[in-house]
Structure formats: structure tokens, C-alpha cells
Design brief:
single chain; alpha+beta; DNA polymerase, domain 1; Cytidine Deaminase, domain 2; 2 domains; four-stranded antiparallel sheet; 10 helices; 13% strand; elongated
């Protein structure tokens, strides 16, 4: 009995000694102390934006800056480049439907939603640039607004900009939504709505989903 007990105790002592003397692995300790490599990159990118503004950054880096807030604990450069590779330009990324954004690796429902919120904010800014102003004297603003609002829609839209006698924007309405290459137009409804708003001129706009960033504008006085 004593010999069996002693043998058991000896084994336990050896085990305690073995585990007690095991050193902490230096690579693991070092890895715990190191910061993710992308944190320094984020700081440098922010500094470049502060120093030179948006023009100092290519599209993928500007998109990275935005994704920093949306994806706080991952490297966002691969996601930004994947989005641009899929959709083409920064404007097309923001204009893409949420369900297509989610198909890109690294973009979940929350990120897709936040990108659409940014897109909606950009559209509102573009609308503010033309609302209440003389539209025909700022034609580029009209084009910018229409591109932001509808150039990346998956279906063709027929939109009407209603103007007052000073060519200021009264209202902007989507009257019809059609298919990928066709949308119906009903002149009776266009005239009826123009009279309801007391518009003195209208601009008819429609997009071409099969030709991204293709917008057609037609201006006509309301007689």
C-alpha cells in the first residue's frame, strides 16, 4: 500500500513540476501586445485627408475612410477595393441596391444599410443645391442631382422637375417606374400635375439602367 501510494504521489509531483516549469510562449505574448497593422494605416489616411481634403485620395481610399466607421475592427482596404471592382466607381457603389452590396465579401446588412444612408444624404445635398434656385442657370447642378437620384436605379424612371416663373425648382417627382429599358409616359398626367403646382416650366428626366450614369433631360415651357 505504501509503495503504491508513494508511486502515485511521485507521478503527481512530476506532473506539477512539468506544468509549473512550462514557460509562457514568447510569440503568443508578443502577439497579444501587437496592434493590428491597419490601425496605423487608418491614422495615416485620416492625416492625408485632413491635410489635402478629398482630392488627395483616390476613390478606394475615400471609401476606406467611410468604412472605418462602419467596420471598426477589420482591415477595410480589401472591402473597399472589392466594392469598386464590383460596381466601378464610388458613385456606383453608393447607388447600388443594398441586396447587391451584401453580395460583396465583408459587407453585411448593417454596412449595406449605412452605405445607403450615406447615399441618401448625398442625394439630399444635391437636391438642396438646386431647390429654390434658378435651375436653368445651374445646369450642372441639375445633372449632378439627377445622377445622384436615379442614375443607378435598376429600373427606368420617368421623373419631372417642376419650375416656377423664375426657373426655380418647385417640386421633383417620380411619375412612373417601368422596366429595365422602358417606362410609360402619360402626357395628360404630366400636364395635370403641372397645373396643380402652378408650374410655368417642366424638365422631363429619365434614366437608362442598361447604360449606367446615362440621363436624358428635356426642358419644355408649360403653356
Amino acid at each position: 500500500m505504501g509503495r503504491k501510494s508513494g508511486g502515485h504521489m511521485g507521478t503527481s509531483d512530476d506532473e506539477r513540476t512539468f506544468f509549473g516549469e512550462m514557460p509562457v510562449s514568447p510569440p503568443l505574448a508578443k502577439a497579444a501586445e501587437e496592434k493590428p497593422h491597419y490601425l496605423g494605416h487608418r491614422d495615416r489616411l485620416r492625416e492625408r485627408f485632413v491635410a489635402g481634403g478629398a482630392d488627395a485620395l483616390p476613390d478606394y481610399e475615400l471609401l476606406e475612410l467611410l468604412l472605418f466607421r462602419l467596420i471598426p475592427r477589420s482591415d477595410t482596404k480589401p472591402v473597399a477595393k472589392a466594392l469598386l471592382a464590383r460596381f466601378g466607381t464610388l458613385a456606383e457603389v453608393l447607388g447600388a441596391p443594398a441586396e447587391l452590396l451584401r453580395e460583396v465579401k465583408g459587407v453585411g446588412p448593417s454596412v449595406a444599410l449605412d452605405l445607403k444612408i450615406v447615399a441618401a444624404t448625398a442625394q439630399r445635398m444635391a437636391r438642396s443645391a438646386v431647390r429654390g434656385r434658378e435651375v436653368l442657370s445651374s445646369w450642372n447642378n441639375v445633372l449632378d442631382y439627377c445622377r445622384a437620384a436615379m442614375a443607378f436605379e435598376a429600373r427606368e424612371q420617368f421623373r419631372i422637375l417642376f419650375l416656377d416663373k423664375k426657373n426655380g425648382l418647385i417640386a421633383d417627382e417620380v411619375q412612373q417606374t417601368g422596366t429595365v429599358d422602358h417606362t410609360p409616359v402619360y402626357p395628360r398626367e404630366v400636364i395635370k400635375r403641372a397645373l396643380e403646382l402652378s408650374a410655368t416650366a417642366i424638365i422631363l428626366v429619365h434614366n437608362h439602367p442598361t447604360q449606367p450614369i446615362s440621363i436624358t433631360l428635356d426642358h419644355a415651357p408649360n403653356r
